[in-house]
Amino acid sequence: MSSATLSPAATKADTPISLRAHLRHTGALIRRNLLWIRQDPESMFDAVLFPVVFTLLFVYVFGGSIGQSLGGGQERYVQYVIPGLMAMMGMNMAQGVGTGFNQDFNSGVMDRFRSLPIGRGSVLFAKIAVELMRMLFATAVLMVVAVLVGYDIKHWSGLLASVGLSAVFGSALMWVFLTLGVVMKNAQSVQAMGFLVLMPLQFGSSIFAPPASMPGWLQAFTDYNPLSTLADTARGLMEGGPVAHDLWVTLIWSVGLTAVMAPVAIHKFRTKS
Amino acid sequence: MTRIDDNPVGGNSAVTVRGLVKHYGETKALDGVDLDVREGTVMGVLGPNGAGKTTLVRILSTLITPDAGQATVAGYDVVRQPRQLRRVIGLTGQYASVDEKLPGWENLYLIGRLLDLSRRDARTRADELLERFSLTEAARRPAGTYSGGMRRRLDLAASMIGRPAVLYLDEPTTGLDPRTRNEVWDEVKAMVGEGVTVLLTTQYMEEAEQLASELTVVDRGKVIATGGIEELKARVGGRTLRVRPVDPLELRPLAGMLDDLGITGLAATTVDTETGTLLVPILSDEQLTAVVGAVTARGITISSVTTELPSLDEVFLSLTGHRAGTPQDVTPADDRQEVAV
């Protein structure tokens, strides 16, 4: 057998993909993910039901008694819990990213994408972009329900800033769940894993009730739980009050998670065999 | 490995593979594979399940990286130039890789955009290919509602969007019914007519015979033989005698009688009830004479006797010692079935 007959082209370096091409690919994939929603509108159910159910549940079931401990009643609790629920939107949408992506991966379409000359992150960026849109939609639903149950929007600018911060933190979490979605074998295990991680974070936080009545060790946990700091920042921004500490902790978490998990997710995506 | 084709490789090599190795733990999916596919030809890679065919295709489409060895496609190295390489290949996987939630048209448009076509070109190309693969009427329906054959056609269309120089067809008809299989074959033949180079993996002898001009037989990660299909058959040396008794009821007694005669070709004698013929593998003219003599002596009237080159099934059997599609050795009893495939 003759030795390798490689053409001269094989010795040249690989060509990089331009930023414009990256954007074009991401755009095309965003369109795909939006078409999925159009094809399957039921996939938006969670974005509608989640804010409605949680708002009604917490306001009408726990609202009275927790409100009393806040020195008011149900009306007082509405003002407390709505910024907290807003902080939860990002997390809840993020949880679904991993599961959906995992299913996508097992369908064979991903092999086709990975055999195309597109940027390594395009598929993931597109997924995150669409999930953020879903999150914004869920937040809009939340605010409508909030106003219906008597929430008083005091600072519109604070509201918008809170939405922005939730999106930043939400996208950081989405990278974590995308990584799980790529690495884990099936959608069920992704879901179980997400539940195990998020359950303590969600309830060991200031989202639903003020941590003041919690034991000391739990308060220490809630102080640096990003969901607490995100909820407290949103409260400060929407109700008025100090936000500096909470804002910093939230931003550090967001940047830290993204800086670590985004490259991991992209790498795992490309090298998955 | 035995190289049958003694002629130096003519034409430019579209795919060149040298000493390719891929291990998964203890399993050697590829154990030093060499392969040359000339431009404009169809190379069939034939082997049973687990022979390493899909691993080979996945390496050549840059989905996984080899542990050792080299491979170039259209001059681009699979490891060092994956992006350029992806631009010149088309991939149709073992499991139709179309997005079931998207309409057929959107599937093709998406891929066009990902291949850097302008919006307009991507639109035109999607329309063109839907027309070409007779899917225009189903263009707006989600691919999930398509029949198996339509899905494969959409998959083929998707892999043709970038006008690839090299097309990989990884078991393109696995799981399809015979009619749909013929449909897919016709499409592949048409594409080959347009000059695309094809690397086809298959477990079906018939498929390789239909589509491929050259054949590489792989088994357990190794190349066992390579060459033109006719050359391979000639190398195996045997022929198959096809005997048709006038009365089909004579088929079984005839088979039993020939077994008693002790004529051993490359494989056992088989009965093909569909055509009402008996297939007797033979190795020499003496055996041919003996068979005809025995039939005559027994007084069985026959309507025709023809000799054929051996089937690819027999080629595989003689090269690997086991039948294609069955990784383990088969007992003689298993060989006495209808003609496989």
TrEMBL record, chain A:
Domain of life: Bacteria
Keyword Ion transport belongs to the record: no
GO MF term set: ABC-type transporter activity
Organism expressing this protein natively: Streptomyces actinomycinicus
Residue ranges of the TM segments: 48-67, 159-183, 190-209, 247-266
GO biological process, one term: response to antibiotic
Residue ranges of domain ABC transmembrane type-2 in the record: 42-272
Keywords annotated in UniProt: Antibiotic resistance, Cell membrane, Membrane, Transmembrane, Transmembrane helix, Transport
Annotated localization: Cell membrane; Membrane
Homology family: Belongs to the ABC-2 integral membrane protein family.
Name by which UniProt lists this protein: Transport permease protein
Membrane-topology annotation of the record: Multi-pass membrane protein
One term under GO cellular component: ATP-binding cassette (ABC) transporter complex
Automatic annotation (TrEMBL), chain B:
Cellular component GO terms, alphabetical: plasma membrane
Main location: membrane
Alphabetically ordered keywords of this record: Antibiotic resistance, ATP-binding, Cell membrane, Membrane, Nucleotide-binding, Translocase, Transport
Compartments where located: Cell membrane
InterPro entries: AAA+_ATPase, ABC_transporter-like_ATP-bd, ABC_transporter-like_CS, ABC_transporter_ATP-binding, DrrA, DrrA1/2-like_C, P-loop_NTPase
Residue ranges annotated for the ABC transporter domain, each copy included: 15-245
Ranges annotated as spanning the membrane: none
Bilayer disposition of the protein: Peripheral membrane protein
Enzyme Commission number(s) of this protein: 7.6.2.2
GO biological process: daunorubicin transport; doxorubicin transport; response to antibiotic
Cited Gene3D superfamilies: P-loop containing nucleotide triphosphate hydrolases
Gene Ontology molecular function: ABC-type xenobiotic transporter activity; ATP binding; ATP hydrolysis activity
Top-level class of the enzyme under EC nomenclature: translocase
SMART domains given in the database record: AAA (SM00382)
Superkingdom as given in the UniProt entry: Bacteria
PANTHER family linked: ABC TRANSPORTER ATP-BINDING PROTEIN (PTHR42711), DOXORUBICIN RESISTANCE ATP-BINDING PROTEIN DRRA (PTHR42711:SF19)
Family designation: Belongs to the ABC transporter superfamily. Drug exporter-1 (DrugE1) (TC 3.A.1.105) family.
Protein name, as recorded: ABC-type xenobiotic transporter
Organism, scientific name: Streptomyces actinomycinicus
